[in-house]
Amino acid sequence: MLGCARRRATNPLRTGARCARAGARRHSLTPCRRPTRLARCAPRHRGFPIRCRARHGCAPDARDDATAARSLRAPFALLIGTLAHSPLIDDLIRCGKIDATAIAGKWESYLIQTIDAPTLGLDRALVIVGSDKRGTIYGLYDLSEQIGVSPWYWWADVTPAHHDALFVQPGRQIHGEPSVKYRGIFLNDEAPDLTNWIRAKFGAASVSENPPVPPNIANYGHEFYAKLFEMILRLRGNYLWPAMWNNAFNEDDPANARLADDYGIVMGTSHQEPMLRAQKEWERRYLRTLGTWNYTKDSEVIESFWRDGVRRNKNFESIITLGLGGANDTPRAPGGPDANRALLENIVVQQRTILAEEINPDVTKIPQLWCF
Predict the structure, then answer these.
(1) Are 138 and 236 spatial neighbours (Cβ–Cβ below 8 Å)?
(2) What pTM value is reported for the model?
């Protein structure tokens, strides 16, 4: 991982979550043994109960809004939502059941708290509130880790230990902003090892003419990236440079970019691939006719290529790489840095002009990675 995860405070919920017996005032969190209910505000995760049943043999009773949640009748419920996006959570704040002042307006922050009588029909609840989408996700995965699910459960075959019952202790815990805003990984030098594994597990990507995807491309598709996105989030990351040696994240599988945004993963491109365009996207279109990208002779084609990439991904959360080197880490032009300074300055001016025209006139509001 690049960067560092948030510093974790002592959590009053952590010890109780693994207890085999209920102590004083501990609450059961075992949906298949006791009538725990789940209410959430996560419209892009409606398959959650189905996945729970497939993986664990049981599914929570999930409700998606405040009105439905009020119809719950149970001794204990798990309530999950994001500030300003969950009517149920907003109601609890207005009624004084929860004080979210400590996380309001914060980046990737969350609170976990037990409360009494959250709504009519519920005796108690464990509430997870995120300041934003990833804050809510981190809160869920924090609880999952306390229960005993390793972030590596799939990648390293770490089977969670079985517990006949799970309990939480009453309390409140605030998890603030991370010390490093963007934290992630680069699937660098992925061939041959990871690529061969991808071929064995997921086969080849579907051949396509538009966008151009040739035969025999390893299927770095949404099935693979879903597993990777989940692991990154469980490790409190949020950022990814995808496989790029012989792949194009946005074109090999058109579902990849939308999936990343659904999961809350911020996507970027490597140090040699500016403006959200993979090197392979260029080569599949122009290598036979124009050769590798060369701004000194093909500036108009390259700028149109960049603009199309920005338009394609403008509604997804990204960090946009700026600058331009030669393909495969070669010089952008002969002569070295001093001879190419004016060329590079012009390239960045043109790139930022495209960003201003396509995303936001104030380019300082657009996350960028300057890589020269």
Answers:
(1) yes
(2) 0.86
